[in-house]
TrEMBL record:
It comes from Lunatimonas lonarensis. This is RND multidrug efflux transporter. Pfam families: ACR_tran. One of its GO terms (cellular component) is plasma membrane. It comes from the Bacteria. Keywords: Membrane, Transmembrane, Transmembrane helix. GO terms for molecular function: xenobiotic transmembrane transporter activity.
Amino acid sequence: MVRFLLARPIAVGMTFLALIVFSVIVFRTLPVSLLPPIDVPQIVVKVNYPNASPQAIEQNILSTIREGLMTLNGLEHMESKAGSEVGNIRLTFDFSTKMELAYIDVNEKIDRLISGLPEDLPRPQVIRINTNDIPVVRIQVLPKGEMDYAEVSLLVENVLKKRLEQLEGIALVDINGKQERVITVEPNRAALASLGMTEQHVIDAIVAGNSELPGISVEDGQFRYYLRLATRIETPEDIMGLPVRKDGRSSVNLGKVANVGYEIAKPVGFHLFNGEEGLVITVHKQAMAKMNELMPLVRDAVDQFRLDYPQVRFELTQDQSMLLNAGISNLQTSLLFGGIFAFGVLFFFMGNYRMPIIIGVSLPSSLIISFLVFYFFDISINVISLSGLALGLGMLIDNSIIVLDNISRKRQEGLPLFEACVTGVNEVMSALISSVLTTLAVFVPLVFLSGISGALFYDQAVSVAAILSVSLLVAFILLPLLYKMFFATKEGTPLPEDSRVFSVVLSLYKRVYRRIFAYRKLSLAVLFSLIPVMLLLSRLLPVQGLPPIEKFDALLQVDWNEPINASQNRERITTIMQQLEGAFVHAESDVGLRQFLLFEGESSIQQASLYLMFSGEEQKDSQVAFLRRYFRQYYPLASVEIQDAPNAFDQLFSSEMAYYELRWKDLASKRPIEERQMDQWLEELPLREWERGPGLQKESAVIFRIDQEKLALYGIGVDQLLQQIQKLFGSYLITDIKRFGEVTPIRLKENPVDFQQVLRTHYIRGNDDTPYLLSNFVRAAYDSHYKYVTADRNGIYQSILVLGDNPDAHEGDLRKWGTDRNLAVEFTGQFFQDKETIRQLVGILFISVLLLYFILAAQFESFVQPLIVIFTLPLGVGGAFVVLWLTGTSLNVMSAIGLVVMLGIMVNDAILKIDTINRLRVRYDEDAGKLDARQALERALYQAGEIRLKPILMTSITTILALVPVVFSSGLGADLQRPLVFSVIGGLTIGTFTALYFVPLMYWFLVRKNRFASVQPVA
């Protein structure tokens, strides 16, 4: 095939040129995003029920919804958590579930359950989690001067949001910090009492004044008109003009018995930026949109907002496109330094400038053509797929170097240019195909890991497979064609020769080779003894998910564990910002309940989060230490968590699941165990390190106890009393004014005084219209109750979080503790998921090694020779562990990927070495009259080492040198790639030595000892 194609250079050249042009066109259509659009198999149902206790939300809402969702297809886990005024149910599905259908199914079931839920409950929100839900940027909107905050909220909701949604590529615009304008009615109770009226008369007048005749029409001759009541209200002035009547008697204007006006509704949450109250807009992109094209549009839109609305200030924060830019920058750096160092290494080893130019043409050609595979496999350009391309670039250079070196060797042996190109490619073709297949055999099975990890590896595996496959196409067709064009010179032109540098290296290699082979058994024993020593270093390496990235931002999350309102929560956060004033670049905080549509996490009025961006690592550390001291001193009851601000990767991999959790259920009562009984049992726990789970945390509350006998004695109904309490203490909604999509609630004004005083100064009327003080029927007392009610698909549970290094050490004792108290005990958490992931990983790696063995057995037509390649892998892994340990680097996702890349290159070198030894053995076996079998083997091993020394050294050195600049770089991209670089450098340093000396030693040992190690002639 190579001969046929090289004989038609113009057709081949035009074909490659067409492929490149077509690839460039396709590249312009590929979506660009931060992460691949992964459907996280989770759906969250959120409930917001003002003035409801956790017990009421669990009993009246969540239990009904859980029962209705129990039959969902593919449902694996169901967790619910009811708090004060809020509740949520988290549904986890099998990863193979079609989440589009699951989302529709959940919504349909919620619609069916609505009739069984409280009438005044807003429809529960159903939130589907997707990697595209991570906002690409946050826009801060801050009113200037005395501008009405409600007007700014309307501007953001009705104008800015819609203008942003019109931008190409934007899927959703989410808002937090909106404040609602309401009309409040404050009855003058003294005036009402003097007229013999009550608040209910005022409420009835407003409801009647806001009535509307739906669907009624009249005819006037041949015309038809729809009726509209002229008494409909729209402003506070309209309300004050309404007549208030009692029992058909004379009326009085409402304005004389009540104060009516516009106010900002009682807030349940705030958004702060640098201590100023404002709003935040989060921008979410479409799955197929290009982030690098979307962000300039967003910036231009914000610049236009600044011109159109000078009374409002705009700021852009937390731009997640920085991660994508870091990935693109890393790929550009790899290309640049890969080309420069490949040129330098080839020049020093070959003393020829044409070889680097050929590689310089083939490298970007392979990269561009790889994007065709992206198009056909529906892969976007994202950080994951770009990292796969960056990984494949090193192996791409290796294939190019091997082919060019072999063609040059054939020319030095005296073959004509055309025959040298054909023979040089054919000789290494099967070995290179095997090396690519073995690399994929190690890498691709990782796709079958369950969960997010497997989904992320899919994009990486496709990109690696794409660039390696294209590299073979380029190495077998384009490279020999370019070689033939560049070296098609006149007769008498000297052939390319080895440089002086390589001659010195070759001489050094031969000396070490003779020394090692003089003590073969000892050398092999020493190399084998290094394997367990270096692998044991893995126990000294800390294990992390992602490498530690140098971050200048921190996130403070606090739950005050006190019954404070949102305004008090805001004051505390503002005080903290004032304490840190001048220490941070900017700060933003979400206080109380979040209004984001896509916020699936936990939120309550007494919780807050504070994001702080600092100018440097040292300043960040000092301020974080100050915050810890501050909370210990002033708010010892608060639950505080201070961590590095999560980026998109952290948000994707973060889990709501506890690490190791002991759950129990009281199957008899099917309700939480009473506090006193539970406190006594917890004192008897056979465990030292633990903390209360959400279902055991407590908070203070006010309990109203109603005297039913007195109510019956005075002829007062319980419903009447409850309605009066709601008017006095709740946010009582009278009616809504609806006008062109804008809804303005009309509410009774709340009493700002102490609740005890309200009970002592307000009345309720009996059947004989006699007023009685509320305190006669209601007794109030302070009490504590469980802060949350937690449940799963089997019912309500309570739990503790087990701490310590070996959380499973007390499993037997904890089971006995539960069974002694007639509790159903269950252990769950991330600990068990991690064990399952490790079990899957071990199984997948075992399958990878089997695939590797089968491919090599087919390549070498031997059952023994593949073992040589497999035995080289532990030495490379051990070398990587040594460098990771010396540099203080953890074993994480990036260093693990580096191990896979390094093993791919090591396998490549070992396969080529063994393939060359086999070829030489066949040649020397044909000359059996002059050499015996032992001499033929010795000569083949020695000769193969000399022949393959140059490509092995060049591939290793170019890969290592291309990665070295990352070690000395700074920034987000370098922090992510540095563990990968250390793995590759450590593995290849040992791996190169392995390929040069360990492979021939193992070959000599196995062939000498095993009669099945003979080779077949290579076609």
